[in-house]
Write a structure and sequence with these properties.
It contains 19 helices and 16 strands. The protein is an alpha+beta fold. It has an eight-stranded mixed beta sheet. The N and C termini lie far apart (59 Å).
Length: 458
């Protein structure tokens, strides 16, 4: 069989990004990067692959199942147990034939980095990281198997100033992206632990959190069914939903939970810390306009221990576009206990889809070239080369059309590429020094010297 003409495809859940898409992605990333840097975060990168021992057990049972595993190099079946292969025991076999995996997020690799470089780091250590991650999830709209995360984390401090600054950073990024209608959901793992205590479900706390995290995806009835199958009795489930379904302002919810958690130190701590974050936000001069105290916010990742966040752009089909929280025990898993951390992540792919749905990308985003120098012959192209050098020296994105073709074709090229200005150079322009500058969007033409053009655009 001849495979030479087989049509190429992409793995499901992955995508190519052409120039127009990349321009929009860079628009998002540049604004996020600028905000991170404004708040004192330093850049960091880690390898695409990590040892599975680093990744396993950090994301909960469901997260572990979504890890992409990498087969060992060479004859990976050589040391495999033939009994395991015969029994098709894939879980046990995987530990033998695969020692590495693609990173699932950026937080666990960051914790590993901190532990390995603890003697060279100045604490509190603030880092941001913008890299792809991989999850063996079922691809669907807004959910991909390969996607970028934009993380900002602080380790080495218990201060709730960090949580307040996270809210400020999210707010500033959305302002820069011209997104006005969004909600920053805020909760605390202590409050969820208090909820488990109210429901007498301490033994099933992790299962309770995982089920609650699905509430906005599958609805209350299916969450109730899942809680039953996970060993929580009907009376406990009723207690859970009597809390989760309470409506009111943030102050109303705080007052209600004070009564509910009267005998729960974990719940009381969670309430105190949420109140302090909101107070610090106010002292920073920030606003809680977009902040919602959401009692049902659980976040499935098992390493969170304090405040947790999730951000949703309202009235779009995409799910959450940002999330995070405090993780007091993460570095302890790598032999470095007692280092508190807090961080959050933007999902750039989801932000991209949301901005597309809202038609919120500025038109200039897709412009790559400011000036195209068009020409009639060899002499005028030679002049264009010198003009391009002067324009580029002033930081003006400039192209010279490479081929000797008709002006019409050069103008069509400029139009399709959304070039802002086309400079047509003919024999008259060479003689007079007065260039014909065409604004492609309006069709307006003006005469000006090269120096005048540089002054206008520089």
């Amino acid at each position: 069989m001849d495979f030479s003409m087989e049509k190429p495809t992409l793995p499901k859940g992955t995508r190519d990004f052409g120039p127009a898409q990349m321009a929009k992605r860079q628009f998002i990333l540049n604004h996020i990067r600028q905000v991170f840097q404004t708040y004192g975060f330093l850049p960091l990168e880690t390898p695409a692959m990590e040892n599975l021992s680093t990744l396993t057990g950090k994301y909960g049972e469901e997260g572990d199942q979504l890890l992409f595993k990498i087969l060992n190099s060479g004859d990976f079946l050589k040391e495999a147990d033939t009994t395991l292969m015969g029994n098709r025991d894939s879980k046990s076999l995987a530990s033998v034939i695969s020692e590495k995996g693609l990173r699932y997020d950026l937080t666990v690799p960051f914790a590993r980095y901190v532990v390995m470089n603890r003697h060279d780091i100045t604490f509190p250590f603030k880092r941001y990281q913008i890299q792809p991650v991989w999850r063996a999830d079922r691809p669907q709209k807004g959910r991909y198997r390969e996607f970028y995360q934009c993380d900002a984390d602080v380790v080495g401090t218990d201060s709730l100033l960090c949580e307040a600054e996270i809210i400020l950073m999210i707010t500033e990024v959305f302002q820069r992206l011209n997104i006005a209608d969004y909600t920053i959901k805020l909760n605390h793992r202590g409050i969820l632990t208090g909820l488990a205590e109210v429901a007498h479900a301490q033994a099933n706390e992790s299962s309770l959190f995982v089920a609650i995290d699905k509430l906005d995806k599958i609805g209350e009835d299916k969450v109730r069914d899942e809680l039953l199958t996970r060993g929580i009795d009907r009376e406990g489930i009723e207690r859970v939903f009597s809390v989760l379904n309470f409506k009111g302002t943030t102050a109303d919810k705080q007052s209600f939970l004070q009564t509910q958690f009267a005998a729960s130190p974990n719940g009381q701590k969670g309430l105190r810390e949420v109140a302090e974050v909101l107070m610090l936000l106010q002292r920073y001069g920030g606003t809680a306009e977009h902040v919602e105290f959401d009692l049902a916010l659980a976040r499935g990742l098992s390493y969170y221990t304090g405040c947790i966040f999730e951000v949703k752009i309202n009235h779009v089909a995409i799910g959450s576009v940002s999330g995070g929280g405090r993780y007091d025990n993460l570095t302890g898993m790598f032999g470095m206990p007692g280092v508190s951390g807090v961080g959050f992540s933007f999902g750039v792919d989801r932000l991209y889809d949301a901005l597309e749905e809202l038609a919120a990308f500025p038109q200039e985003t897709t412009r790559s070239t400011t000036v195209l120098l068009a020409h009639f012959d060899e002499a005028t192209r030679t002049f264009a080369l010198g003009a391009a050098a002067r324009l580029r020296a002033r930081g003006i994105a400039t192209e010279v059309y490479p081929d000797l073709v008709k002006i019409k074709k050069q103008l069509e090229f400029a139009d399709k590429k959304k070039v802002r200005f086309t400079v047509v150079i003919g024999a008259d322009e060479l003689t007079s020094g007065q260039l014909t500058v065409k604004t492609m969007e309006t069709g307006e033409q003006q005469k000006m010297t090269l120096e005048e053009l540089i002054q206008r655009l520089g």
